[in-house]
Fold this protein.
Amino acid sequence: MQTRCIITGLMAILLAACSVPQYLPTADKIDVNPYGSYIVVNSISGRVTDGELIAFERNNFVVLTTSLRDSAKKSVIIPTNEVKSFTLQYAQPKHYGWTIPLYTVACISHGWFLIFSVPINLIVTISVTVAGENAYEYKFRDLTSDKNGKVINSEQVKMFARFPYGIPTGIDLASIK
Amino acid sequence: MTKRILVLVTVVATVFITLYSCTTYYFRSNYKEVNSLLHETANLQTKPFLKAHLKNGDICILRDNWKADTSLNTVSGAGSKYDFNRNLICEGAISIPIDSVFIFETNTKIVNPEASRVAALSILAGVDVVVGVICLTVPKACFGSCPTFYMNENDNFHYADAEGFSNAISPSLEYADIDALNNKPLSSNRFSITMKNEALETHCVNDVKLLAYPRQKGERVYHSPADDFYLCKDNYVLSMAKADEGNITKLLQEIDYQERFSLSDKNNLSCKEEIYLEFNKVGNSKNIGLVLNFRQTLMTTYFIYSALGYMGDEVGDVFAKIESSSGIRDKLKGGIKEKLGNIDVYSWNELTNNWDFQGGFNETGPIAINKQILPLKKHSPGSDVKLKLVMNKGLWRINYAGLTNIKEKVTPTEITPNSILNKGIPDNSALKSIIDPSDYLISMPGSEYKFNFILPGENEDYELFLYSKGYYLEWMREHWIKDKDLLKLRQLVENPELYLRTEAKEYKRYETELEQQFWDSRIDTKTFSYYAN
């Protein structure tokens, strides 16, 4: 049972590493990327919306999502009072998931010291992998302005949208791709 | 042990996760006014890329050579322009009327964001490689050793109570080994000991039995290097011990995990050293014996593995020669072992002002601690006893030295096992093999056999010794084959003196690290003797 949980956890980390949109720049290219950041919004109703943050205006998130059915892009408006939490990712994470099995298997050559080296290797590689995946993102708490971490800091969030100043006048939301 | 590992893992994990989760970058700034943009970026050594978000939804990304002209009210530079859907419109020199810009954006470069993660993985890889190389060089240090015996079957090799026939690396070198178990007072007449194969070796065990002698409160029975047994009473604590490094009394006074050992000589591995021991106010200085708890460092292990490496792909041929030639066997029994020598004991004779040789201790193996007695034949009159130990530098680890009074020489009772459990299941075939002198119990890597004994007296306490007889076959490792050097092997066998000089540099290369790594890895500080003096 324990082994199954560990394997499931590791698989989740490895799989999570693959689900990042390609339009996100690498960390060294964030200053020349014309797109908005990738946002995952968890609504109070339990719905999860993810996609490019197009704008944050009038207490609404405007997110350009990709339909799984026909790959078509569609802008969705999510009022902040319906938001439970969100995560904002501004650059491609570095994937270190491969180090977990590699370093663990390498411990076989340690003989008895395996009882020490395997946990240490797992701690370091899992920590590095998790940190690598989360390195270029803001959690909900990073972008909230009150002490309780409930009120979204709109000025901070806006900066990571494709249109930091809001949807330009004259542009139809449906035409944004 | 598990609890400690869990605590350690939790602490390290918490530190790591906390450290990493604290890394949040704030690198982006927005400016609605061009003046504030100019003001904020004026003192920057490296001008950042500039993004101008236009009112119509387009974006211009200018490289670090952009400039703002407040008289013409434009921002210009080389870069790229995209439409609101981020399709590239143009590239090259761009001039943007400031009035058309809704907001300016700059981003501070995130410098080496992966440095800490890469460093952590590199350090870990380095440590893993070092440990791996050490383990491949001296597998015995990491993968266990010839049969190890445990009174507590859950212990690991750091707490082995005995190790059997360490020198018997081929059938013709088979011999019987006796180890004191240093058992605490027995509360039952049933006794068990577990034999484990924790190495890449095939163990061929001919015999395992207990040697038991009844003892009264305050009495101990000790085993001597000559395989005699002495019933003893009264212990005399060490008053002073000195070695090259200074006062080592504290290291040898107590039976604990504090061992005295030295590192080998950098020019000659057979270089000797001396330890001086003093016992004051020895109540009865007649019929005394020196009790020494000792084991070897990893030096002999290194020689065994080096020898196998030198044999390379001819290991089978060499072992066939060992089996068929008594001359070679004699050389192996003498040779390097003789050069390394015993822990020789001398006592100070005040009448002749000389050190009188008393005898020596010797037992191969770096894992289990040997507890033996050497009866002292002559000593000066008076209550003070001065002794000198002469031994090979870097070869021995001494845990305890004490004096005791010998009451009499005794003969313990031999007790054969009444049952053997193979990983918890009774194994009559194994029992038959152990009882039959012509048969062998074959123990493969990972095997565990629990030997159960019934002691003769129901309510009697016994001093117990383990008798084990057999040999083992070391498994050849693939990476050893490349170390083949038959000339070096010849030198090791024929001219050990020269070998010990020429090999000193190579051995010193890993000695400190290996010893430290091996023994510092113990995870408990429990004393391994019930008798703390």
User: Anything to note?
Assistant: Chain B touches chain A through 60 residues (CB under 8 Å). Chain B has three domains: 2-24+112-133, 28-107, 138-520.
